[in-house]
Amino acid sequence: MPKVKVPRKSTSVDMTAMCDVAFLLLTFFILTATARQPDPLEIKTPSSTVQFKVPDKDLAIVSIGKGKVFLEIIGQDIKKDALRRMGELYSTQFTEEEAKRFGVLSSFGVPMGGLKQYINMSPDERKKSGYDKDGIQIDSTRNNELYRWIEQARRSVADLHQTEMRVSIKGDSEEEYPVIRKIVDVLQKQQVNKFSLITSAEGATK
Amino acid sequence: MAELNSGGGDGKGGKVRSKKQSTRVDLTAMVDLAFLLITFFMLTTSLSKPLAMDIAKPDKDEKNLDNRKELKASQTMTILLGKNNKVAWYMGIAGGEAPTIEGFADVRASLLKNKQKVKETMGKDIVIVVKPTDASTYKNFVDIMDELNITKTNINAPAIDDDPTHLLDSEKEAMKAGGIL
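Predict the joint structure of the above. Result:
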């Protein structure tokens, strides 16, 4: 009598479908990814119930944390143009290469005096250099660099995109109000009476 | 047919067949890699976009005084932001009514109450004046703007007066007495 043979089943599973799904997801995430920028400032934004999303162009974000002010201008073309204008104002020449490097920089808080050196550094050196330890100058009324930056960026947006630049303030929850007031004063000095505050989402009812 | 190649020696004399190769590829490594990349991209994408709260501040233009609007005192409610996440509010003119000091949890009820009162007695919408003092934090400011938004007391654009010189003595006194300045 012949033995009943139990057919040995293969342990390998068909992974084609799984592979398909995995790559589909992968493609989706790659395409939607806007890589999270490493923030030079740790900012915990307060939450609110507003539903209006931050626009992703023609925008300047003023970040405030620990009394320091950083600026981020959205859009590479605007950033380059603003840099060129700032160079003219402060009689510093920026090469095409430097403008390109500046274009990919996210938020920065470097005084104009050290900007050229800062641009030419590698990311690691930038962190060590301490050029951005004070943020952008806002104190002196005569040489208010934040004022100039915003002014020039607004001109760039008006020239290149024919629209008004929006200004957003991204402040840390624990930031004292006087610092915010300084920024608002800078904006109001150039008739920017309307701006937005960046907040994180919160449930509609508490 | 399949047994042809299974044995070691009994294939003697048979045709030399080339082994039929399986078309299956081992996908394990590929799947591993794919999931690793998925994880990476999922973690680095900022999924929730931050939200923007629009703020309009009164124009500071000193030369053009025509754009100022006169308000009735009984129509306005002034909210002073103090320290320790406390606010003081009063209706009408400063020094008239003693300011009420409360936390952010209770402000909403007060706002709604005053909104209704003004609407009933005057038939007009309430006007809010927000005065953030030096003792308050940025969070307080965002919170109060959010409360105004929730209670819909911002039909008349709320006036944000953050000039420290505009803080009246009577307001300072009241806030000091309440221990929030």
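Chain B has a mean pLDDT of 77.
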